[in-house]
């Protein structure tokens, strides 16, 4: 089968590799669509990060480069391993792409399996990936989506789960006012979750095209250009002078972080979703005097079922966020190049491995 293989920084090759066997306790999935994630771009530009190198194996998967990429995937079950009885061939599914040590508690009661030692991701750290025609995944990480969610929409459930987990980390509730900095894929999908949960959303974003996407999708009630708008002043105006209840940082840009600190009300909650490649500065006195609650968030934990239900129930429409569908052969030229050099023109580019 065809697969996109990560060899090293700047070196991704589409190759023919064997179809992975469907072993006991696993599910064989024919991949329909796989999204290109910002993490994939970081691996290409700056990696290996989550990907292993050719000389250093991942601590859990035991694999070295090359590994198959792709962790935002949807597909159809084509085979069931021995012992898997609660799915059937033909089921539409998505993957929660974790690689964890055996013995980690991944039950419904766990709130921290995503923070366990040596955690890795399917499609980055080994065990196949969604940028291939087929993948075999342990049953625990396979989530059925029912028949009313199109498979292209379903490929966005993984990044949508990032936004859902961030919402849960914020302790936000219906009636709150939230400011999001950054209208990239995660900022927009976080906004979609917040709106579905009854929270009023404002987004600050310098890119005109991304502001337009925030407006036309309807996920934000208010959209600001931080280059020309007094974002803090506008937020206070819209909240009767008190400030935002919630802030979500989705840029890894210092001025955006500073804006959130100033725009939040006293006792407000600031959730940092972006991955920072450098140290940030914090005016600690503002944090103290406003009693701001600063929280980090990474990925998701027992989030997929609730996220899928939001889509199944029609509370979130994922179609507007899909801005392109390409084949594996165009992964670098049509996918990575667009998202690296012309990222204002795209939100989520999907790969159909059979095009």
UniProtKB/TrEMBL annotation:
<feature type="domain" description="Enoyl reductase (ER)">
    <location>
        <begin position="10"/>
        <end position="351"/>
    </location>
</feature>
<dbReference type="InterPro" id="IPR013149">
    <property type="entry name" value="ADH-like_C"/>
</dbReference>
<keyword id="KW-0479">Metal-binding</keyword>
<dbReference type="GO" id="GO:0008270">
    <property type="term" value="F:zinc ion binding"/>
</dbReference>
<keyword id="KW-0560">Oxidoreductase</keyword>
<dbReference type="Pfam" id="PF08240">
    <property type="entry name" value="ADH_N"/>
</dbReference>
<dbReference type="Pfam" id="PF00107">
    <property type="entry name" value="ADH_zinc_N"/>
</dbReference>
<keyword id="KW-0862">Zinc</keyword>
<dbReference type="InterPro" id="IPR020843">
    <property type="entry name" value="ER"/>
</dbReference>
<dbReference type="InterPro" id="IPR002328">
    <property type="entry name" value="ADH_Zn_CS"/>
</dbReference>
<dbReference type="InterPro" id="IPR013154">
    <property type="entry name" value="ADH-like_N"/>
</dbReference>
<dbReference type="InterPro" id="IPR036291">
    <property type="entry name" value="NAD(P)-bd_dom_sf"/>
</dbReference>
<dbReference type="InterPro" id="IPR011032">
    <property type="entry name" value="GroES-like_sf"/>
</dbReference>
<dbReference type="GO" id="GO:0016491">
    <property type="term" value="F:oxidoreductase activity"/>
</dbReference>
<comment type="similarity">
    <text>Belongs to the zinc-containing alcohol dehydrogenase family.</text>
</comment>
<protein>
    <recommendedName>
        <fullName>Enoyl reductase (ER) domain-containing protein</fullName>
    </recommendedName>
</protein>
